[in-house]
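We were asked to recover a plausible sequence for a given structure. The inputs and outputs are reproduced exactly as logged, with field labels preserved.

PROBLEM: sequence recovery
POSITIONS: 412
GIVEN STRUCTURE:
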């Protein structure tokens, strides 16, 4: 028993001693990864990003109704963020198009509102410049098409009502019906901006995006930190491990001791790094986090994550190539579980796959605890993941030990 206790103390000291190096390596790695991501984003999208589409509006004649509608549409929340409308003369519009100052111009003919109500449909002319990219022109065209589609739908309803009145021998109601429908369609068109109001998307039930990313990015950072520990893990028997084995500490016991030591240090690191961030979010935003006694359960979550990482190293190995595979596996797990992008925005098959991965359960468990809640079912799922990882790691350690013995037997 004394030898086992000494081995545990030795492993804990070993992992604590290398913590500064691990943190430095992880910070540098994250900075490099972030730098590459920012550079790649600018290289790919820097010249293609659509900022604001400037459009000139030319109202021919003295049509106050058309001018009022133009100004109203230009002030809609759903429209003004993407398109900037500016009323101007036709000469100014043509000049600015040539100079590349505007994306396009809409020539609104005189009496267009009356023509819509009467069914005459005097068309508006759309002029597009050649100084902008194809994607910007396509956006402008789609916006114009969307407005035309809305008008077509309104007219179809009015014509259908006219036919209905005529078929039922009530032509005297046609005028009254058209006025009522025109008023209804206009009211709908003017109020349609409510369809584009901002809506908050929650990634985890009861947790806003600020809280969610506080949790997920800490999981990502500590995953990379755990990956940096990998090369210090002992996944194969060497002389020192053989010495412990000769003293009665077998392969399984050595694995359990090292896993306990690593997971304890990892849990301590997770708590030291995460608690300040959680408290900062609580005091500086409208957070759903609530400090309470249940926060002590944060430690078991980080501990269970350490058990998982240790098992992953034992299964895949900790050589240079194996660590690369571990990195790819962790990145795939985190992406599918919504660590970088909330699951609601991922393809359906990826979102479904993420529900079976440990990161999803860890983040949901962490969110629950940070809100001051405790759910036995959720915690049971976390313990099941931990036990499964432990069992898989033990099996991998035993298999490696036996394969090593068989290999030595062949070369004797």
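RECOVERED SEQUENCE:
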């Amino acid at each position: 028993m004394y030898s086992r206790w000494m081995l545990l103390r030795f492993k804990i000291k070993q992992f604590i001693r290398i913590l500064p190096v691990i943190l430095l390596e992880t910070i540098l790695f994250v900075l490099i990864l972030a730098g590459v991501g920012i550079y790649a984003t600018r290289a790919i999208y820097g010249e293609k990003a659509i900022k604001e589409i400037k459009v000139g509006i030319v109202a021919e004649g003295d049509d106050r109704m058309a001018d009022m509608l133009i100004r109203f549409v230009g002030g809609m929340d759903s429209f003004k963020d993407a398109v900037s409308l500016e009323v101007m003369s036709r000469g100014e519009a043509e000049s600015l198009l040539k100079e590349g100052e505007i994306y396009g111009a809409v020539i609104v003919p005189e009496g267009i509102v009356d023509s819509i109500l009467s069914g005459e449909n005097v068309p508006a002319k759309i002029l597009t410049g050649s100084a902008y990219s194809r994607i910007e022109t396509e956006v402008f065209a789609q916006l114009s098409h969307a407005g035309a589609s809305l008008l077509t739908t309104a007219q179809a309803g009015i014509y259908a009502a006219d036919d209905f009145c005529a078929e039922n021998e009530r032509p005297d109601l046609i005028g009254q019906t058209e006025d009522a429908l025109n008023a209804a369609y206009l009211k709908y068109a003017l109020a349609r901006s409510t369809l584009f109001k901002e809506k908050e998307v929650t990634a985890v039930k009861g947790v806003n995006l600020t809280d969610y990313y506080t949790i997920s990015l800490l999981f990502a950072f500590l995953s990379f930190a755990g990956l940096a520990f990998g090369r210090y893990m002992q996944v194969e028997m060497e002389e020192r491990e053989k010495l412990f084995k000769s003293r009665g500490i077998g392969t399984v016991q050595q694995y359990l001791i090292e896993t306990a030591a690593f997971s304890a240090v990892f849990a301590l690191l997770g708590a030291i790094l995460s608690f300040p961030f959680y408290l900062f979010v609580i005091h500086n935003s409208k957070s759903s986090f609530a400090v309470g006694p249940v926060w002590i359960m944060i430690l078991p979550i980080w501990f269970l994550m350490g058990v998982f990482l240790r098992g992953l190293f034992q299964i895949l190995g900790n050589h240079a190539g194996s660590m690369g595979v571990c990195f790819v596996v962790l990145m795939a797990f985190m992406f599918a579980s919504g660590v970088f992008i909330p699951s609601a925005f991922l393809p359906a098959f990826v979102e479904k796959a993420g529900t079976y991965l440990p990161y999803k359960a860890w983040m949901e468990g962490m969110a629950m605890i940070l809100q001051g809640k405790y759910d036995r079912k959720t915690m049971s799922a976390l313990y099941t993941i931990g036990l499964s990882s432990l069992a898989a790691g033990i099996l991998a350690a035993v298999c490696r030990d036996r394969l090593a013995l068989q290999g030595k037997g062949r070369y004797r």
